[in-house]
Amino acid sequence: MPAQIKKEFKQLKIRFIEAHGLPRMDLLGTIDAYVSCTYLGKVLKTEAKTASKEGNVCIIDQEMWIPIQWPVSVDRLILKLMDEDILNDDIAGSMYFSLKKLMEKGSVDGGCYYWQNLYGAPPDETGHMSDMMNNNPEFASTWKGRILMHLEAFGENDEGFIKGTELKKSDLAKHPERKVQPL
After folding, report:
1. Mind listing the pLDDT tens digit for each residue in 85-117?
2. Of 157 and 116, the one with more pLDDT
3. CA 20 to 30 Å from 141, out of 44, 118, 169, 178?
4. Phi and psi at residue 80, in whole multiples of 5°?
5. Homologous superfamily of domain range 8-174
6. 63 vs 181, residue with greater confidence
7. What is the rounded distance in angstroms from the CA atom of residue 43 to the CA atom of residue 135?
8. Backbone CA torsion sign across 164, 114, 121, 140
9. How far is the C-alpha of 45 from the C-alpha of 60, rounded, in Å?
10. Distances (CA, A) of 42 to 29, 70, 113, 138
11. Contact, 119 vs 140, CB < 8 A?
């Protein structure tokens, strides 16, 4: 980025509340779901939660904090819904976002609640085309459920912006439901 462009630092908080209509990926007819994201070479993920057998509803109730240098050089963010297994995890579906749009939606007072659809390959598909559909929702042909999220965006001077030196273990103890993942 050229030196003339003033860089700002922002944070995007995405809280994953619950997911509905998830695919049944395990032998028991459920899914051990977690959300995974790779951003600027770092992998963020929530803890796996087992969905109910009735309606395959999964209460996630976890959040990710994503640091963003503004203006953004990469506007594309893909979040993947994964199924945790003993040997290797399977991708259930993915969601594509524009970081600029997420920051815009999250900038309103109190943030914004938002349902996002998941898309992926048909259940019986395997191979290169299946991988492409699961990793790139714009190529996918099958609806795989939806996730309720709460978005909040913070600028450096906003209340709620977490500076690296401010985060202490005592802060996390106040909110045991949070799992804050540093980048």
Report:
1. 888 898 888 998 998 898 888 888 888 998 999
2. 116
3. 44
4. -115, 140
5. C2 domain (2.60.40.150)
6. 63
7. 15
8. negative
9. 11
10. 32, 18, 25, 23
11. yes
Three-state DSSP string of the chain = CCCCCCCEEEEEEEEEEEEECCCCCCCCCCCEEEEEEEECCEEEECCCEECCCCCCCEEEEEEEEEEEEECCCCCEEEEEEEECCCCCCEEEEEEEEEHHHHHHHHCCCCCEEEEEEEEECCCCCCCHHHHHHHHCHHHCCEEEEEEEEEEEEEECCCCCCCCCCCCCHHHHHHCCCCCCCCC
R_g over Cα of the chain: 17
Rounded distance between C-alpha atoms, residue 144 and residue 9, angstroms: 34
Residue type, 17: I
pTM beyond 0.90, yes or no: no
Nearest CA among 25, 97, 21 for reference residue 64: 97
